[in-house]
Amino acid sequence: MNAAVRAVVRMGIYVGAKVYFIHEGYQGMVDGGDNIEEASWESVSSMLQVGGTVIGSARCKEFRSHEGRLKAAHQLVKRGITNLCVIGGDGSLTGANLFREEWSGLLEELVQQSLIDEEAAQNNSELHIVGMVGSIDNDFCGTDMTIGTDSALHRIIEVVDAIMTTAQSHQRTFVLEVMGRHCGYLALVSALACGADWVLIPEMPPEDGWEEHMCQKLSENRADKKRLNIIIVAEGAIDCHNKPITSNHIKELVVSCLGFDTRVTILGHVQRGGTPSAFDRILASRMGVEAVLALLEASDSTPACVVSLCGNQAVRLPLMECVQMTQDVQKSMDEKNFEEAVRLRGRSFENNLNTYKLLSYHKADSELPNSSFNVAVLNVGAPAAGMNAAVRSAVRVGITEGHKMFAVNDGFEGFYKGQIKEIKWGDVAGWTGQGGSILGTKRTLPAKHLDKIAEQIRIHNINALLVIGGFEAFECLLQLYEARTSHEDFCIPMCMLPATISNNVPGTDLSIGADTSLNAIVETCDRIKQSASGTKRRVFIIETMGGYCGYLASVGGLAAGADTVYIYEEPFNIRDLQSNVEHLTEKMKTGIQRGLVLRNENSNENFTTDFICQLYSEEGKGVFDCRKNVLGHMQQGGAPSPFDRNFGTKIAAKAIQWISRKLKESYKDGKVFANTEDTACLLGMRRRTMAFQPVVQLKDETDFAHRIPKEQWWLKLHPLMKILAKYKTSYDVSDSGQLEPVTRIRPKKAD
């Protein structure tokens, strides 16, 4: 929430508005006085890294009454405030909308009671409202992610990872209760992210007899040498008769039925606390800026809107339609119409649920379809967190689809040397939380070893390839596609999943591993800022990885609250460096006496990190001193973030389903033959959708010399960072959302 407050204040000041804090939520609006104070640029400094909300929040009974709202209107009119930005859950937003609907009536009453004059009523005749959804449950319809959800997932996954190490040593069963009274999002996604054995959520109550089913699954897992069982329960979990299922009930069940040593852990308010994740800071900063733009464009005739995220795009949706839909979910659940509830929750929730169902249940071999196809999985390029989650997901979905799955060690180098073996369901247990690449990964390209690779494809009778990796993986797929003319063995379906911390692969907005890396950068920047504010008047220059791609520096800078970012995509010269130094000199005169500058490793071959540090030291003499820090390979390591685990899991599942379809289409006369463009694809996220794109068509979109896409969406976020760091710049609003209706996914008619 603090990142959102900071963005609204700074963007508001930037566009020339007067911005006020209202402390303690609606209570502060009703009470007025010191609760409503004008905000300054400096007053939102250093709050990006703080959890909770600095301006306070409170449940307010008074605002629910007409008298309370009358008092609140009076307080706003006194200060001439006619635009409200409300950050909260559906309750807060519904309240704001009611307040807006009553506004003109409230003003009339205030005039009648002689509390304000006619002129004041006329000057403040319209109240505009824009909402941002802050809720860790992610229970608001119309938005893929609410502010705070990703951070809550970070807390849950930290705990699960810690519990896994102890549970594995003791052969214990753990029942974890996570928040979500009415919404199972946190439970579902954390179950996906840690590979839990069983999950219970309000939207999908288990069928009668689930107790035996669950115990049977737990004992099968034990028999498979899996020493640990994890069951995740949402606090609002129910059975199909709307009776609550508690974590203690599950514990008693497991103990009485199986006699396993079972412990319950209730996470409680841990999930609300802690430092916000990089994803949440970027989401909230984007939403905050979008909210200010929406208020500027609002008129009497536009409905109150919420700004939210759809895929990777900021959108504006009518507030009451979203609230209505959110309430419809609860209604559907009360009426036991659970399928409808899941559909109303939106496509992101539905995808998560379907993926979980695919991965969770290991059918006996006799139940599986027998496809007689062999699919090989390999990692290429540099390691990225989340690769293992993708491999696990691919292997398990492949087995469920009836394929034989093969793992290739050490990329194409291992491929031509014949390091290929079958990989089974149990072999990938516990892989989601592991960083790096368990299969091993190399940058070797196939071009020089085509004959040997073709030979291995024949030996193992490989019918399809799934390549998980970065820019090299893209080049590999292109080379194999182009080698189809000379080697018929490469005429098989091939799919690539983007996995690289640099996020420099064409055809996708996001890559597996980039989120984990951003979190590592942001965490370090937070610590460095703390050190700098202790020393006073110190500027830190931090070098990030990314090759020529400025994604990590630019988006990391936005999340860490950097003053300047140097990237290759935006050329800079000595005059720019000079104006940056002057900008920091001005800043040192205020109360914020520290600076943070990020530089991408290849942003400029002559203006190196050392050079910039020396330049700043010389030019800043007597005003500030300068230190540098090269982050290096710590950006590649670490346990994958919840986002990367899930992104990897979901896209790998989707890729294997695509491979199955292509195998069926290209199987003729007892063999697979696929030589069309659309059988060598990259699966990427483009704005709102996941799309399979032929690699050969992505060739024109790529700058091969610098290993980056020619057009990159995140460059639109770059000016945002500058605005929030007090630079005058032009902000491209062409990308800002237009108000659009909420799309309700209608049930698919039975074919």
TrEMBL record:
Chain segments carrying region C-terminal regulatory PFK domain 2: 374-751
Which superkingdom is the protein from? Eukaryota
Keyword Nucleotide-binding assigned? yes
Keyword set, alphabetical order: Allosteric enzyme, ATP-binding, Cytoplasm, Glycolysis, Kinase, Magnesium, Metal-binding, Nucleotide-binding, Transferase
| Activity regulation (UniProt) | Allosterically activated by ADP, AMP, or fructose 2,6-bisphosphate, and allosterically inhibited by ATP or citrate.
Record bears the keyword Magnesium: yes
- Co-factor requirement: Mg(2+)
Tell me, what is one Gene Ontology molecular-function annotation carried by this entry? ATP binding
Q: In which pathway does it act?
A: Carbohydrate degradation; glycolysis; D-glyceraldehyde 3-phosphate and glycerone phosphate from D-glucose: step 3/4
Enumerate the active-site residues. Answer: D137 (proton acceptor)
Q: Identify the residues that bind beta-D-fructose 2,6-bisphosphate.
A: 443, 500-504, 538, 545-547, 601, 627, 633-636, 707
UniProt-listed Enzyme Commission number(s): 2.7.1.11
* Assembly description: Homo- and heterotetramers.
Against NCBIfam families, the record matches this protein to: 6PF1K_euk
Function in brief: Catalyzes the phosphorylation of D-fructose 6-phosphate to fructose 1,6-bisphosphate by ATP, the first committing step of glycolysis.
Official protein name in the record? ATP-dependent 6-phosphofructokinase
Q: Which organism is it from?
A: Hucho hucho
